[in-house]
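Please go through the protein record below and see whether the fold suits the sequence. Record follows.
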Amino acid sequence: MPKNKTNTAAAKRIRVTGSGKLMAAGTAMRHNLEHKSSRKRRALSRDQHIAADQQKRMKKLLGL
């Protein structure tokens, strides 16, 4: 039986926490940052939890 390969694109974008939750970098931080408040930029710069309906698919890509 061959081994399952991890999807490297997903592995670069998603990290797994110690409790098994999936985290990814937020969106909307590429351009137009001067129009966003400092508070908004700080909030967007943090990693965000992946939605529950997507977690099953992402875990399959990561081989978890």
